[in-house]
Write a structure and sequence with these properties.
- The structure is a single chain.
- The protein is α/β, with parallel strands linked by helices and about 500 residues long.
- The chain has 4 domains: about 180 residues, Alpha-Beta Complex (inorganic pyrophosphatase (n-terminal core)); about 100 residues, no CATH class; about 70 residues; about 110 residues, Roll (Diaminopimelate Epimerase, Chain A, domain 1).
- It has 16 helices and 15 strands.
């Protein structure tokens, strides 16, 4: 288990003093589950230390493309899950105080604070040789700050953030500093760890045969075919109905015998479809750890960390981050009360209202995704290049184009990354680029986030992200040049046989 390096710990002590000495605090956070969780943790810290957050206090959930122009006009400005890769201090003055908690590749080095005449503190795991794509995310960094204050009851939010950021993507489980955070959450009684589990999305809410049909890292006979998925379960002798409540069996219902039977068969199916060099990685596509939030009801999306994170993303993608933040705030308060073996009718009622809103948002989100995925499939619009594939996401909102790219990967060639592009907004005709790929490609050592950053910056744009999920912003007239450069940059890096 990884511990915080001493130099990093010193930075956290400094960050604590910075917050304790500041009254007027502004928070900017990223537009995803990691960013939302980060914002909730920081707000939780401020409330727990007695900061009076007035009605005008608001966390700004922002896209990366606006960071260069954000005003630095509060006593302390905090950037969480963003800021390292952007010139956020462009508008700083000698009275400014800036705190950055980010895990993305930094523009500045660790000694940058010594070159400016204002208070500047950046905590980034990369400064300490810690992998920000697998070992800790923005929410994890914010939790470690909360831990500096002694607030380990916020640890579950660090886990929500890590799963939302797919920090478990390569190995199927949380590692590094994430493991330290997980230990805190488990000791607090807030998270249950299910080892050697079946790694399928929808563990609590999707019928098992439906969850199987969504498998897309490699195209199998069950991919996009619920009937074949159902036949597979029957052939393996796995009961498709839950005898307790007579509903379709979920992944979380499987006993160990049936679970391993299904995992073994899926591994066999996968190895038949992939080059032999990938065979060693096949188990990691279907088996890993799952994480449950212990205080949440079974068969709800709140119980499973992955499903919970999707709901948080749905709020952000649909312009309703305040719903996600309110739910997380209420859940923090609810957990505090439950830890004392009490219950608050008021908080339960408030959560029920927020959950109703969230269900409507999630329903609309699912419908929007399904509509666009169907449209792409029917139009056969995926263009193949030697080393990549792409589609025009015209009409798709820029904040969901990456999600859709990942979901249509099964319609293309899993051996190559898939890239989608769409207009940033009605007011901005620049292009938002999103790249997704099979987890298997990451095992070849290709870091697409670094590649897309290099290409976009050479065109005067910006970009970056993780190895299997990343994005960029470029001008509309640079589209063809971008794809040509990406294709050339990937030459020799992918093994396509």
């Amino acid at each position: 288990m990884t511990s915080i390096p001493p130099e990093m710990k010193e930075r956290y002590e400094e960050a604590r003093r910075l917050i304790e000495s500041s009254k007027d605090i502004k928070i900017y956070s990223h537009t995803d589950c990691d960013g939302i969780s980060s914002g909730a943790i920081l707000t939780g810290i401020l409330k727990k230390i007695g900061r009076q957050l007035g009605k005008d206090f608001k966390i700004e959930i922002v896209n990366l493309d606006v960071l260069e122009n954000v005003p630095i006009e509060h006593e302390l400005t905090i950037f969480s899950d963003l800021g390292s890769g952007q010139p956020v201090d462009k508008n700083a003055n000698k009275d400014s105080k800036i705190l950055i908690l980010d895990h993305h590749p930094p523009l500045r080095d660790i000694d940058y604070c010594d070159t400016v005449d204002y208070d500047y503190l950046e905590i980034n795991p990369i400064f300490y040789g810690i992998d920000g794509s697998q070992e800790v995310c923005g929410g994890g960094l914010c939790y470690l700050l909360a831990k500096e204050f002694g607030f380990t009851d916020l640890s579950w939010l660090g886990i929500l953030a890590a799963i939302g950021d797919i920090q478990n993507g390569k190995t199927g489980k949380l590692e590094g500093l994430n493991r330290t955070i997980l230990k805190d959450a488990e000791e607090e009684g807030l998270v249950n760890i299910i080892k050697n589990d079946l790694s399928l999305y929808g563990r609590q809410t999707r019928p098992l045969f439906v969850a199987l049909s969504y498998f897309s890292d490699v195209n199998l006979e069950i991919t996009n075919d619920q009937n074949r998925a159902l036949d597979l379960l029957k052939r393996l002798g796995i009961n498709t109905r839950n005898p307790v409540n007579d509903t379709s069996i979920r992944s979380c219902d499987l006993n160990q015998e049936d679970k391993f039977k299904l995992i073994k068969e899926l591994i066999n199916m996968i190895t038949k479809e992939i080059p032999s060099r990938y065979a060693i990685h096949a188990p990691k596509l279907v088996m890993g750890e799952s994480y449950e939030f212990a205080n949440e009801e079974k068969y709800t999306f709140l119980r499973d960390a992955s499903e919970f994170s999707t709901a948080m993303n749905a709020c952000v993608r649909n312009g309703r981050p305040e719903v996600a933040l309110e739910l997380l705030d209420l859940t923090i308060r609810r957990n505090e009360i439950l830890s004392d073996n009490n219950i608050s009718i008021d908080i339960e009622s408030e959560r029920a209202v927020v959950l109703d809103d969230l269900e409507e948002i999630s329903k609309a989100h699912r419908f929007y995704l399904a509509q666009n995925i169907k449209k792409i499939g029917e139009s056969d619009s995926i263009v193949q290049m030697k080393n990549l594939q792409y589609f025009d996401g015209e009409g798709i909102r820029s904040n969901v184009v990456g999600t859709i790219a990942g979901m249509v990967l099964s319609q293309g060639d899993w051996r190559k990354p898939i890239i989608a592009f769409t207009q940033v907004s009605e007011e901005n005709d620049d292009l938002k680029i999103s790249l997704r790929c099979s987890k298997l490609l990451a095992y070849d050592g290709v870091h697409f986030g670094k590649i897309i950053r290099k290409v976009s910056q050479s065109l005067g744009g910006n970009g970056g992200g993780h190895d299997v999920a990343c994005g960029a912003y470029i001008r509309k007239d640079q589209k063809e040049e971008f794809f040509d450069m990406m294709n050339k940059e990937l030459e020799g890096k992918l093994v396509l046989d």
